[in-house]
Amino acid sequence: ILFEDYTPKQLLDITKSMAAKQDYVLSEEAKLKTLNYFETRCANKPENFANAREARNYLEHAIAKQAGRIVAMKKDIDKDTLMTIEAEDLEA
Fold it and tell me: Are residues 62 and 89 in contact, defined by beta-carbon separation less than 8 angstroms?
């Protein structure tokens, strides 16, 4: 059975949905960066491109980077800060 690959927009939607299930949101800049990332990946798919798994791995890396960024903050951290994935948390 052949399954068509997701579009970059669909991969963005999958990433946002996965994030929401873990109580995260992507900032507007993070959404744009994520869409650009998937546009590039889809245009240059490696042989082992994994569709939704690609979105999950991308989000997992972002959450790890976000955690490191928050730990380094020296000010009060509120709920919005904890929940928001920023563009700087994402892979280029």
Answer: yes
First to last CA, the chain: 33
Q: Report residue 76 as tokens.
A: 């009060």
Cα–Cα distance list, 77 to 25, 73, 86, 88 (Å): 16, 8, 14, 17
Stated pTM of the model: 0.89
| Average confidence (pLDDT) over 17-37 | 97
Q: Please check the confidence at residue 92 and state whether its pLDDT lies above 90.
A: no
Closest-CA residue to 66 (of 37, 40, 91): 91
Note the pLDDT of residue 75: 81
**In a 10 Å sphere around its CB, with 0-12 CB exposed, 13-18 middle and 19+ buried, how is residue 30 labelled?**
buried
